[in-house]
């Protein structure tokens, strides 16, 4: 459960996903989808209950442990969150450097591979303001996958895109999932959930329909 003052954002939600699984939460705006992601990244703490991500458990994490948790996640935001004063290459490279890799021979191959996967190698010297919305989203995905995290979180990744760019982004996410990464995506759109082909849960007014009970403690 998560409350913001008097507002109940999530109401006794229990669910889990397996390693490498594709899970899509579908629900209207204000249903609690972004709050759900904030609990997973430990940007927010539950008002009651426990959030477990791998070996990390809410309520017990120091700042250093929260940083370690976030290094296991690749996060794709609807509004991209690229640094406008840095090139596409530098935006993606920043994620590698945050992991403590600074040598050119460590950074450059990783970044170029991620950009190639996302079809942006020819835009590596461009600044975000010089890209289309679809290209900015693909740059954000390159940043999310450059360290090969086991889980990708995507918050309405097609929300700001026209259909062609949205379709390209969904195909890219499916390819990434095919390489073994887990994918947790939240969206307002049923067609996005159907396109990804994973398990779908509906979230409405802070409640989840059809969620599975959490695994037994100790499993």
Strands of the largest sheet, in order across it?
6-7-8-3-9-10
Straight-line distance between termini: 23 Å
Q: pLDDT under 50 segments (min length 5)?
A: 213-219
Number of strands: 10
Helix content class:
25-40%
Strand content: 15-25%
Mean of pLDDT:
90
Silhouette: globular
Report the total helices. Answer: 7
Largest sheet: 6 strands, mixed
Structural class: alpha/beta
Q: What is the CA-based Rg, rounded?
A: 17 Å
Task: Please write the string of helix (H) and strand (E) elements.
Answer: EEEHEEHEHHHEHEHEE
Any overview of this molecule?
The protein has helices at about 35-40, 65-70, 90-100, 105-115, 135-145, 165-180, 190-195; strands at about 1-5, 5-10, 20-25, 50-55, 55, 75, 150-155, 180-185, 200-205, 205-210. It is of the alpha/beta class and about 220 residues long. The strands form 3 sheets. A 6-stranded mixed β-sheet has the order 6-7-8-3-9-10, with helices on both faces. A two-stranded antiparallel sheet has the order 1-2. A hairpin with a 2-residue loop joins β9 (about 200-205) and β10. α4 (about 105-115) packs across α5. The longest helix has 16 residues, at about 165-180. The chain is globular, with a radius of gyration of 17 Å. About 35% of the residues are buried.
Summarize the helices and strands and which ones pair or pack:
Blueprint: E1 2-4, E2 7-10, E3 22-26, H1 33-40, E4 52-53, E5 56-57, H2 63-71, E6 73-76, H3 88-98, H4 104-117, H5 133-145, E7 151-155, H6 163-178, E8 182-187, H7 190-196, E9 199-204, E10 207-209
Parallel strand pairs: 3-8, 3-9, 6-7, 7-8
Antiparallel strand pairs: 1-2, 4-5, 9-10
Helix pairs in contact: 3-4, 3-5, 4-5, 5-6
């Amino acid at each position: 459960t998560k409350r913001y003052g008097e507002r109940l954002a999530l109401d006794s939600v229990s669910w889990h996903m397996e390693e490498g699984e594709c899970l899509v939460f579908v629900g209207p705006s204000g249903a609690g989808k972004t709050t759900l992601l904030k609990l997973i990244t430990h940007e927010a703490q539950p008002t009651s209950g426990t959030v477990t991500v791998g070996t990390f458990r809410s309520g017990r994490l120091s700042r250093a442990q929260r940083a370690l948790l976030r290094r296991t996640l690749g996060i794709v935001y609807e509004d991209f969150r690229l640094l406008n004063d840095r090139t596409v290459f530098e935006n993606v490279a920043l994620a590698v450097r945050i992991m403590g890799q600074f040598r050119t021979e460590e950074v450059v191959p990783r970044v170029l591979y991620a950009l190639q996967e996302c079809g942006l190698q020819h835009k590596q010297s461009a600044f975000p303001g010089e890209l289309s919305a679809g290209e900015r989203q693909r740059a954000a995905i390159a940043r999310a996958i450059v360290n090969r995290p086991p889980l990708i979180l995507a918050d309405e990744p097609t929300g700001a895109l026209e259909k062609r760019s949205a379709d390209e982004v969904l195909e890219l996410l499916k390819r990434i999932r095919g390489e073994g990464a887990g994918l947790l995506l939240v969206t307002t759109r049923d067609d996005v959930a159907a396109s990804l082909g994973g398990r779908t849960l509906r979230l409405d007014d802070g409640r989840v329909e059809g969620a599975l009970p959490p695994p037994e403690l100790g499993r």
